[in-house]
């Protein structure tokens, strides 16, 4: 499995992803799930993937190979809506090619695609395995893909459109930490990216591995804080 | 869906269940999922159910109908292990009867069965749709069935075998509250039961509906406390 979460906030975008891929518990590997397509000063396109690894890799390879071609591509797209259309279509193309023999395998993949193209505000899309997609709005300013349930309560309790980017990152990391503690199929290292509205650069991209002191402290502080709140809440009166 | 959680702690057992049943979002109803088979002073058997409602109701009806028969039954069982065997066998019997025509319906149900019979300590079992089962041990002293993922992180962070019964109930309620906030298919009222080791009565059984002030306050205190901890944790240094 996988766990990725992205937010479209007032000040910009937050992307965070784990890097564990598994096909059964004895076939675990590390693959980055956060990918960037950037023309500095003009467009920043960010993408996270979950689902069939063969499909997601092929989709990314095809999109990179076509960047300077005549076909619709991510560097030619005029809007983020067009970008989402291209990702969805490429996903359908790969599944149609590979799923021919069926064999009961799930070839589907989900994508979170976000970014900003000159002339538009930052936008964020969730692309389903079927290739259709939805866009994030201020009412619910985040998307998750992969193993989403463990880390959802903290997002629902903390995040709204006016949350700062740094608080968004902190919340995404706590959400991922909760997921890692409860589910073996999600694991370090993490990819984290902070995109400031209107900056058109994707340089605030951080990697957190098991030696990262700050992430470790964050998880510990959260655990200790939770237990503290828990013990301070009075028992129910019947 | 459904969410039930039970704990086997040093001082006894905790059972908590929501009461929402749904087949699609336009067919939602309230059904109790916590059931008791009690001979005061001699045995307390508690059961929670998740999965196909037709199956769980039939299993419970058959077990009640057979209580004073010659067949293996819950009032005749010498141990909680025998109780778990009877529940598993009755589940298999109902599925074998009803699933004959297939039709792509999932007839399976899961059960959490716990309690105490004179001569034994309290015991807790999780019975799978296939009728086989596992028993709770002090290393991981809880079981969940139904929509389990949203409420698991708080259990993993707070509960161990030495947790008091009242803290166990508080944690179960927070776990259910987190699930209710993130998933529509889990809802009030709740059934909560506290069983003290060696008491052989099941009278500490409480019902919490939307008008229960204490449960409302518990959820609010948890939300406020979480947000407070969140804002006190410093942002990550990169």
Automatic annotation (TrEMBL), chains A, B:
Q: What is this protein called?
A: Proteasome-type protease
Q: Name a biological process GO annotation.
A: proteolysis involved in protein catabolic process
Origin organism of this chain? Answer: Alloalcanivorax marinus
Keywords noted in UniProt: Hydrolase, Protease, Proteasome
Q: Which SUPFAM superfamilies match?
A: N-terminal nucleophile aminohydrolases (Ntn hydrolases) (SSF56235)
Q: What GO MF annotations does this protein's record show?
A: peptidase activity
Q: Name one GO cellular component term.
A: proteasome core complex
